[in-house]
Structures are given as structure tokens and as C-alpha cells.
Amino acid sequence: MDEVGRGPLAGPVVAAAVILKLDEKIEKLNDSKKLSPAKRENLVDTIKSNSISWSIGISSQIEIDSINILQASLLAMKRAVEGLKIVPELVLIDGNKAPDLGIQTQTIIKGDQSERCIMAASILAKVHRDNYMKDIDKFYPNYGFKLHKGYPTKLHLEALKSYGVTKEHRLSFKPVKNIYESN
Predict the structure, then answer these.
(1) Which has more confidence, 48 or 23?
(2) Which are the contacts of 141, defined by CB distance < 8 A and separation ≥ 6?
């Protein structure tokens, strides 16, 4: 399992859980951060077809503001595991924090660079979140969400200052909070 979207100022945090087939043969599987957007997109169907089960879990920006980004990330992870068709015996998780799942977990720092199932989860989560941000860009074209995916780039910060805060923004994140409170 892996999650994406902890650092952005807008949008949800997304986790994916993937149980790969034992004989999976996915070429070019890697940490999602090391792949181009096109390569990630091209791997999605291959990952899904080489999986016994896969699932996406999401925590909204409202939940992030309510319970904090760490707890929202753990909640998204829990939802991803609960969405699997099969209950795994062990869940490998990228990083050093694990949600309470009621089953055995093992955290692995930089697991998205060493464990193929975590790499696969990383890709599914990243593509899902990126597609969400591209979709909301249609409703907020002045913000550039399809370009920066909600991360605090110069373009995004300038759009926030010019156009204000949207319902997609995380009000508990300092740059957003400062702009929201000044308006």
C-alpha cells in the first residue's frame, strides 16, 4: 500500500492497495515519482490485470482539515485495504506509519523503491489523484490544477492570491489559511 497527496494545498489524499499475482510480470514497474505521467498511465491497466485485487481509498480535503493530514492519510489507507476483495494476511506499507487495520502490517521506509506491490500501489494512487486534479481543473481553470496537481508552486500560490480559496483547498495548510483569513 502507498498514498499520495500529503503535500498539496488542494484536493484529497489518495491511497491504493494492490495484491499482485505471484507470477506477475510487469515490466518497468517503479516508484511512481520516478516515472513520467505517460508511463504511469500506461502501467495502470497492466497493474490491474496482474493483480488479484486492488482498491483506492480517499480522504477529502474536508477530512484533512478536520483530522489532520497524517490521520487523513491513514484513513485513506484503511479505506483502500477495506476495499480489497480479499483480506490480505500482511500489508506492506510505504513509510513509517500504519493504520490500525486489525491485520498484520509492516512499514517499509522507501518501500515504493523496493517492493513491487508498493510500487504498483504508488502508481495507481498517483494516477487516480492526478486524474482527479485534472478533472477539477475544468471547474477552476484559473488555478492550473492540471499542471501542478495542487502542490504549492509559484503558479498555484499566485492563483490563490488572485482568485482566493476554492472548496478544494485545504484550509488547515498555512499558505491557504493565510490567504483565507486575509480575505
Answers:
(1) 48
(2) none
| Cβ-contact 117, 20 below 8 angstroms | yes
Q: What is the CATH number of domain 2-182?
A: 3.30.420.10
Backbone angles phi, psi at 68, to 5 degrees: 90, 160
> What global pTM score does this model have?
0.95
What would you measure as the largest C-alpha separation in the chain, in angstroms? Answer: 56
pLDDT given for residue 66 in this prediction? 98
pLDDT at 72 over 80: yes
Residue that the C-alpha cell 483502500 belongs to: 80
Please give the grid coordinates belonging to residue 26.
510487469
| β pairing state of 13-20 and 51-59 | antiparallel
* CA–CA dist 122, 179 (Å, integer): 32
